[in-house]
Amino acid sequence: MWKDFSSSADLLLAPRTLIYGFNGSGKTTLSRVFSSIERESLEERLPSETTFKIELSDGSTITHDPISNPFGRNLLVFNTDFVSRNFKWDAGSTKAIAYLSEKKIDARREFDEVAEKLEHAKQKAKTKKDEKEKADKALKDFKTRVARNIREVASSSTYTQSYDARKIEGHYSKASFGKENILSEEDLKKYQVVLAQREPLPTLSFSPSLPTGLIDWFKDGLALLTQSVSGIALKEFEAHTDALRWVEEGLHFHDEHSVSDCLLCGNPFSEERRAQLRDLFDKSWTEALRALEDAVKHGQEHQQALRELYRTIPKEAEVTADERKAFSQNRALFETAIKQLGVCVGELLKGLEVRAANPIKEIVVTGELADFDLEEWLAEYGTIEAALNATVKKHNDASTNFAAMQKEAFEKIEAHVLATNQSDWNHLQKDVQEAEAALEVARDDEKNLSDRQLQLRNELQDHGVGADKMNELIWAYLGHKELRLVANDAGGYRILRPSGKPATELSEGERTAVSFCYFLTQLEAEGRKLNDLVLVIDDPISSLDTAARTHAYSLMTRMTKKCAQVIVLTHNTSFMNMVKREFQNLQKRNPENKVTALLSLDCRNSGNGEERVTSLIPMHKLLEKYDSEYHYLFSLVMDAAEKQSTDYLFLLPNATRKLLERLCQRNGACRGGGRRVASGDGQAIPVQVLQDQPRDHPLGGDAVRSLPAFAAQRRGPAS
């Protein structure tokens, strides 16, 4: 029934705590959790999947895995399991309770000294354990922080998705990371860029080689641009270049009009001379013009190719991070060189265009072209070209080996982070080792003292003292001496009648008396001190023995008054009220401190009608204020009647029965006539009387008729 329960921050178990709950609401389960702590193992009757976490006043916690008992012998739990473990009712026997003899003075004195030293040793061991846990936590937090730092600095889903503190432990245990592993800011960014890539950069097809034929064209074009007129015309026209066009036109005129004499000088215009001039203008001239025109055409093509080469050089972002810096420098040199060559190509092309328009015009080379040293430029460009080719090759190799490159980048960054935290690791590791050594020494001291205490306890044990003390309690509880416990040779007790025969047929009241007195006798056994004890007492009374409740309450109150903490669980209203009043009076005597807590188990239907879910809550105000359950039961039944609520579906039949009983007891309604319903013990209870009550009566008329059907129709014993 306890399912995923977590108490609120203000719900505390005070030095005196009362927990009330109906039968079947989870009291025994709760007491078994405390019993599991006492025995340091999960109670057999708890489900194996049971989990719990309890916080102590010093802030430490106790959990189900592993279960520890920080109270040692000072935590005692009384419940049905305690009775089952210690009593064999059919055989009339029980386990022994060891009281320490006062007769062996020296051994008893040493026992007391060892007990005091052991208490200090336990505190020291606890302190060393806390220090060890603190050192472990600091180391754990460090590993978590470094792992998180690596995940942040080396952001890569491939390598950091499952990166956790365990890897940090592994790296530091295998190697030490020094200054040589620390990266510069530039290198760190470079490797981060590599890891940030989702996929490798594309390979580069760029080649810095100059356009084919460009250099030859440049040399030929420069020669054409600077070629003298004599290279084109006959030597005899070298001094009269301006007459070339006039001579060409005169030749064509004389041939077209069949003029035999020269119209300028009158001399005969021989056929030989005519052939010579025709040859000049038909070959040299035409070829010269064609050479210039071809040079202009090819120059334009080379100029465009040079521009394309300039535009195709990759951007820095397209080059692998390792080569980016060198590439950036060589790219700048490349662009400067190409621009310089481009300017000269442009000037040369412009000169050739002018020469082609007027072949006989002399061209004077000026500007950058005049100072341009092609051979020197080619030598410098060769160095740039080789460097760029090497960069492109390395980039393409890196793209091909992308996975290996990323792995190397991650390992570099990982080693960098580990190196920056190496000194912290050394310090924290040393703290853990020192804390572990100190804890081991403290535990050895505690164990040695504990072993000595056990040795002395065995030497001092006197079971007969326990039997005498228990008999006194039992006789006071029962009010007679019909039962007696006697120590036997096997180390336990036999329960005997006055005749000396084993008492094997004890009543429920007698069993309750014997078992509870047995429990109370343990409080000062084995050297325990009352003011150190934490007690959990689950229903120390018999539901069938009303007279014994007062005895049980009185005995419990008297015997546990000095205990550090007492937690009482019960389903019995009368016993609950006795304890409640005592605790309330205690709180009134200590108004400045919270010394008591009145709680109850709230067991509700989970909503699907098949499960019950229990919570620990402050006691209902009606239960806290009144000694009678009447008001609380009425509230429970009335809510079900008016709201048709099924929150308390499992408790409602029993609550309705108890409410009818209380009402009959108060009003004498059982003497009337009318229809009857079966009570829990099979006796008939009149309902007509209730229906005839005034409408403003708590159970008048409509209230009863509107109850869920099962509440009035239930037969047989109530749960």
TrEMBL record:
Residues 104-145, 425-459 form a coiled coil. GO terms for biological process: DNA synthesis involved in DNA repair; double-strand break repair. It comes from the Bacteria. Residues 14-662 form the Protein CR006 P-loop domain. The keyword Coiled coil applies. SUPFAM superfamilies: P-loop containing nucleoside triphosphate hydrolases. Keywords: Coiled coil. This is Wobble nucleotide-excising tRNase. It comes from Albidovulum inexpectatum.
